[in-house]
Amino acid sequence: MNRRRFRLVAAIVAAGSLLLAGCGGGGNSASGAGANVETDAQGFALNTGPAQKGGTVNILGAVDLSHLDPEMGNDGNVLNFYRLIYRQLTTYSNEPGKGTTVVPDLATDTGQPNADKTVWTFTLKDNIFYQDGTPIKAQDFKFSIERSFDPAVAIGQNYHRPYLDPSGQYQGVYKDPAGLKSIEVPDDKTIVFHLSKPLAGFPDIAATAVFTPFPADKVTGPTSIDQNPIASGPYMIDGYTRGSQLTLSRNPNWKPETDDVRPAYPDNYKFIFGLDPSTIDQRMISDQGEDKNAIASSTNPLLAASLSRIQQPQFKSRTVRNVPNCTTYMAMNTTKQPLGDLRVRQAINYAVDLKSNQAATGGEQMATITHDMLTPEVPGRVPFNLYPSAGDQGDVAKAKELLTEAGYPNGFEATIDVRSIPVWKAQAEAMQQSLERVGIKLTLNVIDASTYYEVIATPAKQHEMAITGWCSPWLSGIPLLQPLFDGRQITATGNQNISQINDPEINKRLDEISVITDLDQQNAEYAELNKQIMEKAPVVPLDWATNLQMAGSNVANAFAHPGRTGYIDYTSVGLKDPTK
Questions:
Q1: Measured between alpha carbons, how far is 96 from 22 in angstroms, rounded to an integer?
Q2: Hey, which CATH number is domain 76-227, 2.40.30.170, 3.40.640.10, 3.40.190.10, 2.30.30.240?
Q3: Whole-model pTM?
């Protein structure tokens, strides 16, 4: 069974599992919301209607983009932004309901594998160019991918590393210009990847941001792209004042006939940063002036306090519910005591009041409680709960029993890293209250939202705990489990194994499962490994966010896209009437 062809089943919503109708039919027409607006059974937008060419779409956000270099950014908002200005070998479909389907981007197809899926060959399309008219060549992919191994930029997505450099010794093209033998470029149109082990899902890796090409002769050093991006997508940067505003205009050398994914409806995009989250909510609800042409950024879903204000059809019909392809969790740093003790980590899993965390996130309409690390639509996933409690409110007695066994009858003190976003701080405060019941006293370390992931991905800067999230449109244990729990992938920067667990049994199972070529069998084995990982308790799964993201009344083609961590895809939207 081909995993990449699984159809998206949309968001789990309040008071049970309500499967949303596909945007192409089966939904309701929103009363008073305008023609062709599709809504779910609760009145939230499935699709805000057809778009026209032209005009400017505004993106309102509290947080600036982490990095303009696609080798360096790794949060959902910046990955969403990248698709406006960058292209890769493959990408994810923008067709509603098919957002987990890999499709060709700069390549002519999704790759041609050999029999055992260890060699993948891609052929580039004709008439593909950078913003200055320079042709995009296969050599540019090799250079860019090798550049991603440089320690100065190696903080972005890293799925490719164990397949292209299993030794972990390669330090990037600037330190080793000879490059990787695993990447071969026989001519300008062809690039061949020789993987260290079979991987049927390599087209998903080829869709990650690190597979953005750049011409070597126009990149002056490891960090130059972060200052001077070179666009290959439909838009290019027109102006940027960090912390304030970024504007995009059309890339004159992007050829729409080579791009079946990005409709490029607007003439311009304007990203506005530094806004207070409550101000964003107020502006989106009020829907005045240019805000009719705006959406809230992926970093700024509706605040829980604003939920009661949008219950009327005219508001709900322009509010998109996030699809649940992200798991919010608390990582426990196993290298710091007493979290190196399994009994302590299990005690914390028992102690956490998941219901309180859900309330802090916004309640049942904005979060679904989970007890494991695979998202709901992963093939083969089997739900389980190893740390049960009445009403998911925590088992204080069991937690105290385990802490006493571990030698901490009165608890201990620890620090928890948290992103400076209201909902995340509310979750951390709920965690404080949960753990205080068993004597664990948490101090919050609030980190700037734009640099948060970079900080917690640097082990030297980590504290005992951290609230974070992990998402993937690639519905497999490879992206959802391996980066988070493979102890051999712990790195000095760009580390995704936030719990820093390095367990030989887990490492061995990851190796054994990764080479299984029968996808049904592989999915079943990952489902079992999911349970084995939770027995080791390196994390506390909290919820699948079903956040709400508002669009202005003139914004069209806004829908929840699983390839964009469940939020509205920036490349899909346009305006209903560009003259307004």
A1: 7
A2: 3.40.190.10
A3: 0.84
